[in-house]
Amino acid sequence: MFSAQILSELAGRGQEIEAISPITSAALQGGDAFGRAHPELHITRFELPYLASGPDIPPSQEYREHERGLIRELVEQAVARSRPDVLIAGREAIVPQLEDLDCISGLPRMLVSHGTTMFGIERGTYPRELAEPLLAAMRRFDLIVTSGRHARTAMAELGVPGVRVIPNPVDLQRFRPLEPDATMLRELAIPAGAVVVLHASKLTEQKRPMDLLGAAERVLAENDRFVFVVAGEGRLREEVERECHSRGLGADFRFPGWIEHECMPELMSVGDMVVMPSAYECQALVYLETMACARPLIASDIVAAREVVDDGVNGLLHPEGDEERLAELIVACATDRPLVKRLTERGLESAAQHALSLIADSYEQALTELARG
């Protein structure tokens, strides 16, 4: 989602983009809808099964070798067609796949590091036999860009210095204050007068979706006007749904599944607040998109959130895993109108600092510097 936004913006400025990206066989059955919608990106797809890997469990060796073969073949073909000025690796896992590839020798290379892999390496839970070669390969890149200052600090401590921080973007033309979307309300069966609490993520351990269930139990015990919408797909979705029903919360929760990014503004429009109880982030796009849509953000008090959220000013923070405090903040956002007004007004100001055009300026400058040596 990050790459799609930044690369599309750069293409609109006249830059030529040749993109190589995976897609699942299931997603490809109906054709590449995203590719058709963005011909300016010249996307070449390769088929891989979806893999919701975490910070501690890398893909299997078989998966990595298969991915390596596909990527290297397509990169060789792309470079042969038209040698680029800069090569961008869109995530850390791509770095080892490009090692010792003759066709890119001498090309300036940028790595965009927004993934979870670095978190696992930082805390020592990612397999060392894979972490060390990855870090060594990263050091050979000309420039590494990350969205969080904390991530730059962590990489410096791991022996990867000189990382540049460019914050994440939000498209203010798409993500803006909207009236609740009638179609989305109908599809989610939201009753009139309900207070809608929204969570949108890939539903893995990182996002701590179970915390929302614990908070919901406390909230609903006092007021049954609340509806909780949990959007996304991931390893924990079925477990979260089962636990939801086992706690007797099934009627109060909605699980719409994966929502395409272009539909997120409509989803945001039906939420009275957005909750992100994550264990860690680099810099969550949802933080910024929530603020841009003038919805109050409730996030766990982690270092990534503190780089974006000023507690009580443009958002609210709760201790990670504290379901009771999370419940209190949900109720506050439903009942304290002056608080919500302050949070959303200042949130809009914060989102403006992450406008897609501004962030694209920074990437364009970095890429130009690389291309010019």
Mind sketching the topology for me?
Blueprint: H1 2-12, E1 19-23, H2 25-28, H3 33-37, E2 43-47, H4 61-81, E3 87-89, H5 94-97, E4 109-113, H6 117-122, H7 128-139, E5 143-146, H8 149-157, E6 164-165, H9 182-187, E7 195-200, H10 209-222, E8 226-231, H11 237-246, E9 253-257, H12 264-270, E10 273-276, H13 285-292, E11 297-300, H14 303-306, E12 316-318, H15 323-335, H16 337-352, H17 356-371
Parallel strand pairs: 1-2, 3-4, 4-5, 5-6, 7-8, 7-10, 8-9, 10-11, 11-12
Helix pairs in contact: 1-17, 10-15, 13-16
How would you characterize this protein structure?
The protein is of the alpha/beta class and 373 residues long. The chain is 45% helix and 14% strand. The protein has helices at residues 2-12, 25-28, 33-37, 61-81, 94-97, 117-122, 128-139, 149-157, 182-187, 209-222, 237-246, 264-270, 285-292, 303-306, 323-335, 337-352, 356-371, and strands spanning 19-23, 43-47, 87-89, 109-113, 143-146, 164-165, 195-200, 226-231, 253-257, 273-276, 297-300, 316-318. A 6-stranded parallel β-sheet has the order 9-8-7-10-11-12, with helices on both faces. A 4-stranded parallel β-sheet has the order 3-4-5-6. Helix 5 (94-97) links the parallel strand 3 and strand 4. The model has no long low-confidence stretch (mean pLDDT 95).
| Class by SSE composition | alpha/beta
Overall, the morphology is globular
Number of E-type strands: 12
SSE arrangement, N to C:
HEHHEHEHEHHEHEHEHEHEHEHEHEHHH
List the uncertain runs. Answer: none
Helix content: 40-55%
What fraction of residues sit in β-strands?
5-15%
Biggest β-sheet strands, sense, barrel: 6 strands, parallel
Distance between the termini: 29 Å
Question: Can you count the helices?
Answer: 17
Using the CA coordinates, give the radius of gyration: 21 Å
